[in-house]
Amino acid sequence: MSAQGLLDFPYYADPLADGCFKQEAITCEVCEQRREWAYTGGLYAANEPDSLCPWCVADGSAAARFEGTFQDVYFSETASTESRSAVLERTPRVVLWNPVHWPDHCGECCTYLGTLDPSAQPQLAAQESIQWEARDLARSISATWTAEDLLDCAVRGTMTLHLFRCRNCETYSLSLDGT
Q: Are 93 and 12 contacting, i.e. CB atoms less than 8 angstroms apart?
């Protein structure tokens, strides 16, 4: 199977590019099928499996079988229960330094796009919704901080900004993580 034949994950834009899967022949511990792709991320569970396929991650059977979740995140109360379950039980693990807030917008969890590097993505960093998010996050750190201060920390690597986008209106959101 080609990489193009892998599943879409609605709450993770490109898990293949982030290394969540690799082409490797395995026998999945959940469906017991021989697969050409292996999940390389983790699962927060008492007994973590050795071999999972992308299909058992996507349909939630891996999380159910091992009574675990793929994320160490928290949500606001405005995110729908269904979208929270999808992020926790059917979305490949996003590599984070600390538990972070998984943003929501328009009533459901946003899609994870990756980390924001303002020096490599200046046009994206200049988007109005990014600037508002960066300002709000900066003020949560210090009343004197500006959006530019926070974005500068991301450029220097002293903080990580995770970039998300609303699945409905495409508004961007940020989540702050340590390094």
A: no
User: In degrees, to the nearest 5, what angle opens at C-alpha 168 toward C-alphas 91 and 99?
Assistant: 40
Q: What's the whole-model pTM score? A: 0.91
CA torsion 85-131-106-159 (nearest 10°) is 10
- What residue segments make up the domains of the chain, in order of their start? 7-66, 96-177
> Residues 76-90: pLDDT tens digits?
999 999 999 999 999
With a pLDDT cut of 70, the percent of the chain lying above it is 97
175, 93, 169, 170: which is closest to 133 by C-alpha?
175
pLDDT of 1 strictly over 50: no
Distance CA 71, CA 63 (A): 11
- Report the b/e string of 3-24 with b at 16+ CB within 10 A: eeebbebbbbbebbebebbeee
